[in-house]
Amino acid sequence: MATTARPAIRVLPEPPGLPEPLPEPAAADLRLETVFGALSGPLRLEIVRRLLLEREEFDHPCGWFGFDRPKSSLTHHFKALREAGVLRQRQYGLERRSEVRIDDLNARFPGLIDLVAGWEPDAS
């Protein structure tokens, strides 16, 4: 029986002096149906997956992803992920940067992060 290797999730140390996070639900208040709702679209899944597997810094602005979408559309998707408790966002001047709430999601929903990291977009 063959097993597939799990993708390596990139965990980077929190740098000192970070701005306070934008409002988000407490870890104890995360609800699976809300998280699933936020992850229900392929673009949002791709955002989270790339932050888990490809991040180069502790957190990233939406421009890092290189999506060819209007800024207002991307803002909506990032806000939905933050309000569901999937992402943590911080304001750096005019820029918002995002990271996945790995520890909180692993504590509430063991295995979910590995599922998202292992998801691959449909090539069709």
Nutshell version of this structure?
The chain has 124 residues and is an alpha+beta fold. The protein is 38% helix and 11% strand.
List keywords for this structure.
single chain; 124 residues; alpha+beta; Arc Repressor Mutant, subunit A; three-stranded antiparallel sheet; HTH_ArsR_DNA-bd_dom; Helix-turn-helix transcriptional regulator; WH-like_DNA-bd_sf
How would you characterize the overall build of this protein?
The structure is a single chain. The protein is α+β, with helices and mostly antiparallel strands and 124 residues long. The chain contains 5 helices and 3 strands. The chain has a 3-stranded antiparallel sheet. It is globular. The two termini are 28 Å apart. The model has no long low-confidence stretch (mean pLDDT 91).
